[in-house]
Amino acid sequence: MNDRDDVTKTTDEKYAFIQDLYDEYRDPILVRDQLVNVLIAGRDTTAALLSWTFFLLVRHPPVLARLRQEISSIVGDDVTLDRSHIQKLRWLKCVINETSRLYPQLPVNVRIAAKNTVIPKGGGPDGQSPVMIPKGKGIGWSTYHMHRQKEHYGPDAESYRPERWETGELDNIEDFALMEASCVIVRVLQTFPNLRLPDNALNEPTGQEQQSLGILITSAEGCKVVLD
Question: What does the alpha-carbon distance between residue 40 and residue 102 come to, in Å, rounded to a whole number?
Answer without folding.
Answer: 22
